[in-house]
Amino acid sequence: MNRTLLGVLCLSLAGSLWGGLFVFTKYVLDYIPLFTLIWLRYMIGFLVLYFLLKWHQKKYGQRKSYTKNDWLVLIRLGFIGYCVTIVGQYTGVELSNASTGALIILSVLYLGIAATAGTFYLWNKGMELMDASVGSLFLFFQPLVGGLLGWLWLNETIGLDFLAGGLLIMLGIVIATWKHKSKRY
User: Fold this and answer.
1) Dihedral of the alpha carbons of 57, 63, 64, 68, in degrees to the nearest 10
2) Cα 30 to chain centroid, rounded
3) What is the distance between the alpha carbons of residues 41 and 91, in angstroms, rounded to a whole number?
4) CA proximity to 115, closest of 86, 137, 144, 95
5) What is the rounded CA–CA span in Å between residue 53 and residue 56?
6) Max Cα separation, the chain?
7) 81-106: average pLDDT
8) Alpha helix (H) ranges present in the chain?
9) Distance between alpha carbon 152 and the CA centroid of its chain, in Å?
10) How many CB atoms lie under 10 A from the CB of residue 7?
11) Is the whole-model pTM more than 0.85?
12) What is the DSSP letter of 168?
């Protein structure tokens, strides 16, 4: 499989899994407090990624060491990029109009495994395989998948503006990926 196709698949799947995050979050917030859910999500995601890292190191024998400054930058980025934005995101979902959808345990596992560990791995793998200018467009799978899942599972309404926007997003991704691929060869 060529790099561009693999990058498209990884980024599409990551964006789609993130899109499901909103539906599962809305359901679970009716039963689990906000900060408990965030903690559970990231603890499960951390454990999955940790075991994936150990497997990768064992298989390929690669190990990178980080300086104290590297760790400080990672901690700052993690706090701002995850803690602050996720609290805001979950608070917004909690206050929105979505209703119930799936089982709590499966939802929490989805949030930890698929929407955290899976998307983190797939997104970074996809960005490794594609230029950031094209890869970043795949973030727009989030509202598409989130809207469709909200419609399917939570009985939320989808209007013509959503369908038109979704079509434009898909068209933009296809054009950017195709044009970028043709310029490389």
Assistant:
1) 100
2) 22
3) 15
4) 86
5) 5
6) 53
7) 59
8) 3-28, 34-60, 68-78, 85-95, 104-109, 119-129, 132-135, 141-154, 160-184
9) 20
10) 22
11) no
12) H
